[in-house]
């Protein structure tokens, strides 16, 4: 009787410990990345491999190592994302694509059908991926939409833009990433 | 001839109406909502504000609400709607964690906790009863001897007073 009670207590404590530990680790890791990016500490961006919204395969951040990468987190229901989409598309078409800068739009916390409609509506041609379940947004510590990170060739975050980006701000961050 | 055509037209019309009236209830029942919006709202979370959907009015919550309403009117079941939402938003969109995988821990821990609590209370009760019985059945010898000595002393004093 006593032994069974001890085992049950141990199981309950272990379960509670796993739940709490997991929550603390996930939260501190994500917050740590954003805080370090904001402080200019060049933290390594968490890896991801996500399915393209148009269903033509996946995009893996690892495969873009050696390139400057702009990662934009967005959702179709987010109003600032609507203002930002034409800026990103214009930058992609007129400068980034030819300069070898990768631009990835990560649709997160969103219905994928809505995201596809949004992409069609705004004529977005840069690679768009869907963050199933919002895991990547959580890993990156994304708290509001949109949020944009600029990574250097080693995959380190050089700049972080909470809220909608401006073309000038993004150009400056890309130039900085190229020099790192 | 004209009368024959008229009769045929009337018969065709009657058949058409009958077919339409037969199809209408079938179509209506095919899309009859299986649940109400309020039935499911409390079981879903707003993915951006971490509160229940029925308590949230964020743009994401409003969009999910419209999606639920759309699918509800199309005759989707509650489970189908939830599955579709989990596919895009992940299990965090459910107010209750799934009873599988890691989510199982969240279901098991409270149950095990309650069981442990009940067992501890029962164990404490059994121990307390055993101690109580032991005290009644076997009074301490030292204490009995002490009482005897005090009684003897009191009796001695009484005898002395009488003298």
Please give the share of residues in helix of chain B: over 70%
Structural class of chain B: mainly alpha
Number of strands of chain B: 0
* Percent of sequence in beta strands of chain B: under 5%
Outline the low-pLDDT stretches of chain A.
none
* Gyration radius over CA of chain A: 19 Å
Per the principal axes of the C-alpha atoms, what is the gross shape of chain A?
Answer: globular
Number of helices of chain A: 5
**CATH H-level homologous superfamily name of the largest domain in chain B:** Cytochrome C biogenesis protein
CATH topology type of the largest domain in chain B? Helicase, Ruva Protein, domain 3
- The CA-CA distance between the termini of chain B, in Å, is 151 Å
* CATH top level assignment of chain A: Alpha Beta
CATH fold name of chain A, please?
A: Glutaredoxin
What characterizes the major β-sheet of chain B?
A: none
| Cross-sheet strand order for the largest sheet of chain A | 2-1-5-4-3-6-7
Mean pLDDT of chain B: 78
Could you give me the name of the CATH homologous superfamily of chain A? Glutaredoxin
Q: What is the CATH architecture annotation of the largest domain in chain B?
A: Orthogonal Bundle
State the name of the first-level CATH class of the largest domain in chain B: Mainly Alpha
Measured by DSSP, the beta-strand proportion of chain A falls in 15-25%
The N- and C-terminal alpha carbons of chain A lie at a distance of: 65 Å
Please sum up the structure shown:
The complex is a heterodimer of chains A (180) and B (163). Chain A is α/β, with parallel strands linked by helices and 180 residues long.
